[in-house]
Amino acid sequence: LGKEINVEDVFSENKFVDVVAVTKGKGFQGPVKRFGIRIQPRKAGKGRRHIGTGGAWKPARKLWREPLPGQMGYHTRTELNKLIIKIGKNGKEITPQGDFLRYGDVRNSYILVKGSVPGPAKRLIRFSNPRRQRNDVSFEIDSISLSSKQGV
């Protein structure tokens, strides 16, 4: 109690972690974008970007399985077994020329994770020990590109 906890005290390189974060928000979306249903043919009814049928007469309500429009994104998601490639204290080792887009300069300690992480830049990410343990892997970094990411 009263002590500062560093990343190096809890996690180490070449170990797996679970990543929990809130995904990017996309607002209110229709069923085509939200669930990837097929667009209706040209001669189908009153619209093309809707589901083919609203369901059976009985039960006289919409079932939860039906793809309906609604909120897309801004949901808490857990990504399992992400490999920690590198843990560092000096952000200048990984900051490219012109800084990271929509983030800026890395000034504090950092964790380099293999794969994607949910959420936009600057959103809080929670790391935890993996629920489904996998064998640790050795991973070598040849180089980190520091070329500018602007205008790519």
Summarize the structure in words.
- It is a single chain.
- With 152 residues, the chain is mainly β.
- The chain has two domains: 7-24 and 75-128, Translation factors (Elongation Factor Tu (Ef-tu), domain 3, Beta Barrel), CATH 2.40.30.10; 29-73, Ribosomal protein L3, domain 3 (Irregular).
- The protein contains two helices and six strands.
- The protein has helices at 7-10, 31-35, and strands at 16-22, 25-29, 70-73, 76-88, 110-113, 126-128.
- Strands 5-4-1-6 form a four-stranded antiparallel β-sheet, with no helix packed on it.
- The protein is elongated and about 60 Å long.
- The model has no long low-confidence stretch (mean pLDDT 93).
- Biggest pleated sheet: 4 strands, antiparallel
Helical residue percent band? under 10%
Number of domains: 2
Taking all residues together, what is the mean pLDDT? Answer: 93
Furnish the topology, listing elements before pairings.
Blueprint: H1 7-10, E1 16-22, E2 25-29, H2 31-35, E3 70-73, E4 76-88, E5 110-113, E6 126-128
Antiparallel strand pairs: 1-4, 1-6, 2-3, 4-5
Offer a quick outline of the entry.
The protein has 2 helices and 6 strands. It has 152 residues and is mainly beta.
List keywords for this structure.
single chain; 152 residues; mainly beta; Elongation Factor Tu (Ef-tu), domain 3; Ribosomal protein L3, domain 3; two-stranded antiparallel sheet; 2 helices
